[in-house]
Amino acid sequence: MKGWVLSVIATVLIVALLSLILPSGRTSKVIKSVLNIIVILVIIQPLLVLDVNNFTVNNLFDSEDFSYQYDYLEYVENVKLDSYGEEIVNILSDLGIKIEKSELYIITDGEADGFPTVKKIVINLENAVINTDTEHIDIIEAITDKLTKHFGLDPGAVEIHE
Amino acid sequence: MKKKILILITLFMVIVLGVTTIPEKVSADELSDNIQSELDNLDLEELQDFYDGIMNGKDKDFNTVLGNILSGEYYSDYGSVADYIIKIIFDDIFKMLPMFLSVIATALLCGIVQSVKSTFLSEGVSEIIFFVCVLSIVLILSAEMLSIWNTAKNIIENISILNEIMSPIILTLMVASGGKVSASVYKPTVTFLTGGIINIIVYAVFPLIGLMIVFSVINCFSGSVKLSKFSEFITGTVKWIIGISFTVYGLFLSVQGISSATFDGISIKAAKYAISNSIPIIGGYLKDGFDLMVAGSVLIKNAVGVVGVIALFYVILSPVIHMAVVSLLLKLTAAFSEPLSDSNVSNLCMGFSKGVTYITVAMLAVGFMLFITILLMIFSANAFI
């Protein structure tokens, strides 16, 4: 590009100088016309060698693809998982079961999209403190029923260990 | 008795009001703590380096500005910005004045030569002197034109760098606040801006503007070589390229942004309802970690967007003012040289002025496109909450 512009400038300067030093007469008009044609040829010279067949629009969109800050997304997901854990602890607390968050294991969809979707919940009731008087099997059913409704899960997605 | 009942009722009201106002304060503190821990986990180093490099002491540093925006205490001192602008204008005028005075002096000399042509000089000699005068004006102005050219290319490169630094941060925060679809829509849009639009401006528009200036100059050199229509053809092409790029980009961005925000907004509301039937309690909208995280991400995203807009403003401000001053001074020089000299000299100055104007327009177009992109990324993702 730079070379072409410089060649145009040089050609025009030379033509202008030649026009100045040419003696006036009938021949000078012919010579000036020829010089102007040369100027036009120099100007359109890149168009003559332009290879349009190899040009695609994709050539213009050549830029590095960037990625999200996955460390931050992971941190956000962990906080949200923590809040899910708190939700589960609160639900179990309403059912008369006191449990630590460490006894819960939440499996999500694994997509780094900022909103982890709960797929499976595993609860270990071994160290939980149960305050209710209802029978053992009712507790498990009640927990499963409550959690599946709350998180929109299938019944088999809630696993309880005692 | 009545007094005792009244006192008891008053006491009861005070206790109730006190209890219901506490959750607001607790929520505000929790939100503030949450934002701080999110900031600690977010990598803003590149943006900080870029911002502090651009500001260079003109305003507060990055961390202060971000903190002020997040706490709602940021205010723009319009007085000092206006003073800064006026200072740049006058500095540029006084810096450029000697150059333009020398151009006017050369134009005056040209005029004198033209007027004594028939009396003292032969036509050939006077034409050569005129040629040399015009050449010297071109040499004086070309140095400034090259400087403006390089400055504009650097600014566009800086805008591209700002886009490449900011976009991953804003898109990450958009994903964190639930705008997964919006982020996936804006990702190619941002690439389109960096790769497509900026490449078109740098590799197509700028060379065409350079050519336009060259042809304007050549047209003024000699009566035998006429390239004014070439120059007009290139001017038209430049206008069309900038206009079409701007329009296509704006339409693409607006349509994609609006539709994706609606989709994300519905998805998030459905997700929130499914998770906890969240109904805001009076005096405490943000009642759990989930909402705090989303709100924190949105606030940080907006704050980072505002910081980016401020950085963009300062990236463009000084060069645009300089180019505007140069363009106006060139027009003024053309106005002064028109009665003093040949019309070719004033046409030359006007040709240069037009070139500077188009360079400024191309630069502003790129800056404005980034500005729109940032605004849309901020506002479309705010629709989630």
Structural features:
heterodimer, A: 162 residues, alpha+beta, 2 domains, 4 helices, rod-shaped, B: mainly alpha
Describe this structure in words.
The complex is a heterodimer of chains A (162) and B (385). By secondary structure, chain A is α+β, with helices and mostly antiparallel strands. Chain A is 52% helix and 12% strand. Chain A folds into two domains: 2-61; 71-161, GMP Synthetase, Chain A, domain 3 (2-Layer Sandwich), CATH 3.30.300. In chain A, the strands form two sheets. A three-stranded mixed sheet of chain A has the order 2-3-5, covered by helices on one side. In chain A, strands 1-4 form a two-stranded antiparallel sheet. With 385 residues, chain B is an all-alpha fold. Chain B is 88% helix and 0% strand. Chain B contains nine helices and no strands. Chain B has helices at residues 2-41, 45-55, 62-70, 78-120, 123-176, 180-221, 228-276, 289-340, 343-381. In chain B, helix 1 (2-41) packs across helix 8 (289-340), helix 6 runs antiparallel to helix 7 and helix 6 runs antiparallel to helix 9 (343-381). The two termini of chain B are 51 Å apart.
Structural class of chain B: mainly alpha
Whole-number mean pLDDT of chain A = 78
The chain pair with the largest interface is: A-B, 47 and 52 residues
Order of helices and strands of chain B: HHHHHHHHH
Helix content of chain B: over 70%
What's the helix-strand series of chain A?
HHHEEEEHE
Number of helical elements of chain A: 4
Low-confidence stretches of chain A: none
Percent strand of chain B: under 5%
The computed structural class of chain A is alpha+beta
What's the average pLDDT of chain B? 80
Rg from Cα of chain B: 30 Å
Percent of residues in helices of chain A: 40-55%
Number of strands of chain A: 5
Distance between the termini of chain B: 51 Å
Give the oligomeric state of the chains in this entry, treating copies of one chain as homo and distinct chains as hetero: heterodimer
* The CATH architecture of the largest domain in chain A: 2-Layer Sandwich
* Count of individual beta strands of chain B: 0
